[in-house]
Amino acid sequence: MRNKIVPVGNVMRAMEACKALLARSAGMPGMGLCYGSSGLGKTTAVAWLATRENGVYVRARATSTPTSLLDTIGRELNLALKQRVDLKVDAIVEKLAQTGRPLFIDEADYVVGKDGENRLANTVRDLHDLATVPVILIGMAGIDRRIALSPQLSGRMAQWVEFAGCSEADAQKLADELLDVRVAPDMVHVC
User: Fold this and answer.
1) 182, exposed or middle or buried, with CB in 10 Å at 0-12, 13-18, 19+?
2) For the stretch 140-154, what's the b/e string if a residue is b when 16 or more beta carbons lie within 10 angstroms of its beta carbon?
3) What is the pLDDT along the chain (191 residues), one digit of tens a residue?
4) Sign of the CA dihedral 148, 135, 11, 38?
5) Are 100 and 131 in contact (CB under 8 A)?
6) Is 113 inside any structural domain?
7) Residue 87 lies inside a defined structural domain of this protein
């Protein structure tokens, strides 16, 4: 079996959404969301996409605060951040704006509150607004409904990519590109 990313439907939709965010006109919303049930390949697809697009990929945690998330982003950008939160934001915004690198935040369920709002979500929104680079959140099924509750956050979402289960065409493509043996189309069946 080969180890590689296969451009199945979910991967292609995420890639198209990222390209649209990168190519958007100035002043247009630049946030995106990749979401869906566990096990559908969101993290793998987006980590690959972040590498391909020279993005900044970070993972939020259950214990994340605005300060700890900013520190994580700063480390990925090789920044020596000051102690004050506002100075951390300024340094990250300056570096992101300078480089144009998109920001990918996995486990965004920890970022978005039950009503779509909290200090962590507002910090991410500030990074988007001030740096004007794409910010793509990756989360579980249901995060889309929580984001929709916040006009400030949902109004910035230009791309919504729901990851779905594997189609038969995807299964055939996976078999063709990953397996060392040929699998006939009539042998591929998705439950």
Assistant:
1) exposed
2) eeebbebbeebeebb
3) 666 777 778 889 999 999 999 999 989 999 999 999 999 999 999 999 999 999 999 999 999 999 999 999 999 999 998 889 999 999 999 999 999 999 999 999 999 988 766 899 999 999 999 999 999 999 999 999 999 999 999 999 999 999 998 877 766 666 666 666 676 666 666 54
4) negative
5) no
6) yes
7) yes
Per the structure, how many domains does the chain have? 1
Q: What residues contact 92, with CB distance under 8 A and at least 6 apart?
A: 70, 73, 74, 77, 79, 81, 127, 131
Judge whether 3 lies within some domain. Answer: no
Structural domain contains residue 1 = no
Provide the residue range defining the domain that includes 49.
9-22+29-187
For residue 98, the domain's CATH number is: 3.40.50.300
For residue 161 the two structure tokens come to: 């990519």
Asked whether the CA dihedral 180, 49, 151, 68 is positive or negative, the reply is: positive
